[in-house]
Amino acid sequence: MYIIMLGAPGSGKGTIGAEICNEFGLKHVATGDIFRNEIKNQTELGKKASEYISQGKLVPDEITIAMVESNIKDLQGVLLDGFPRTTDQAEALKAFMKENNKELVAVINLNVPDEDIVKRTSSRVICSNKNCGASFNTVFMPPKVEGICDKCGSKLTKREDDNPDTIRERLQIYHDQTEPLIEYYKNEELLETIDIDIYIEDIKERTTAEAIKRINERNH
Ligand SMILES: [Zn+2]
Fold first, then answer.
1. What whole-number percentage of the chain has pLDDT above 90?
2. Residue 68 in 3-state DSSP?
3. In angstroms, what is the span from residue 143 Cα to ligand 1's centroid?
4. Ligand 1 centroid to 46 CA: how many Å?
5. What CATH number matches the domain at 2-26+77-113+167-219, 1.10.287.3610, 3.40.50.2000, 2.40.30.60, 3.40.50.300?
6. Quick one: angle between helices 87-99 and 164-187, nearest 10?
């Protein structure tokens, strides 16, 4: 069973992804991790990819596709995160699944209003102690003492790119890139949208549970 997850940076993909993996016994496969591992291990594909990256170029689809395929080939249940990013990649994945007798059951689209993401991400603070790395949120999960890490007592800082303008730019790039994919999977009748309200935990739980139920129905 294969599931793809689409969600903007800051949409809470990590938490919901973990829940979905737990529910269906899937392995969470993040393309970013695949890239880092292939490059670190200096595989043939990793070396090719790092050539492009070091020149500041985008890694071509064929390399990305080959990397993902070699990493998921032997896995039975996968939650794909960060792939596909383009409809060409989606087509390649479809052909690969068919060839390898795998079934893509659903494509989850986490739907969070942009301004909610801006609010949550711009109020994020992280521990300045690199060995700790705890993160807090001045609105949603404030530390006990303002500006101080609960865990280790170090100062909390803000990431430079966690400011509203930069976050909005990131979101715009995400939407431009993902819109065609959402259309693609809608046409394939695979899209499962989860509407998230970051202010109300109950709604998040309910919409996630509903999506899980629909995916279960698809799978039978
Ligand atoms: Zn700390």
1. 76
2. helix
3. 10
4. 34
5. 3.40.50.300
6. 50
Q: pLDDT tens digit string along 24-68?
A: 999 999 998 999 999 999 999 999 999 998 999 888 999 999 999
Distance 133 CA to ligand 1 centre (A): 6
Provide the residue ranges of all domains of the chain, joining segments of one domain with +: 2-26+77-113+167-219
Active site residues: 13, 85, 124, 159, 170
The answer to whether 79 touches 61, Cβ cutoff 8 Å, is no
Helices (H) and strands (E) in the chain, counts: 8, 8
Strand-pairing partners, residue 2, are 78, 104
Quote the ligand 1 centre to 139 CA distance (angstroms): 18
The token pair at 59 is 């890694």
